[in-house]
């Protein structure tokens, strides 16, 4: 009976040389300590028959460790961690939660208009509203892009002017495309006139146009051009590509005829 009871634990009656199966770790002070190394752990497990399970201690550190762990980790982790909540997209659609004004960091002292926007991914971020004045309020739909405000803490996104419920900036002339302002008809017409006058038409341009392009030239109203270009008239607008192309062709043909 005694033999049957002690048979599952034969290691109790075996004399074990613990000094041979245990490794000592040398500390920085030169003394030896009995800190368990992998071989020491395995020896104690074999000696006492204790089974352990490994677990992660990443979230166990300090007081209230269960509150310090982030609630959600984004699936997409780009190099720019400040715009990571866009998840790799250039823009994200969102709904305004609140609108406010904050003071910037030193040495700036102006007021900065910001909005808390809930993105389509469910994340709420702080966005800067560029330009003067805006018409945003709660429940407004906006389009959010990446880009931080240099003097506002925690503001790493901007809303796009002229998209959805956010109106563009009025009477904006410089960098108007960044603020959603369209080009007026008067300014567009003035720029077209300047483009026509930027190039000086020579007699060679008129001669090449009358000989090569005139039979197939279609005007803006959809009709073919019948009369050749006069000595004081300008060549039609695509004279830039026309000159660079046909001058090289004429020069090549003259070289072939000379040979």
From TrEMBL:
Xref: Pfam families: Ribosom_S12_S23
GO molecular function: structural constituent of ribosome
Keyword Ribonucleoprotein belongs to the record: yes
Single Gene Ontology BP annotation: translation
One annotated Gene Ontology cellular component of this protein: small ribosomal subunit
InterPro entries, per database record: NA-bd_OB-fold, Ribosomal_uS12, Ribosomal_uS12_bac
Gene3D superfamilies noted in UniProt: Nucleic acid-binding proteins
Superkingdom of origin organism: Eukaryota
Presence of keyword rRNA-binding: no
Family: Belongs to the universal ribosomal protein uS12 family.
NCBIfam families per the UniProt record, alphabetical: rpsL_bact (TIGR00981)
Name of the protein in its database record: Ribosomal protein S12, mitochondrial
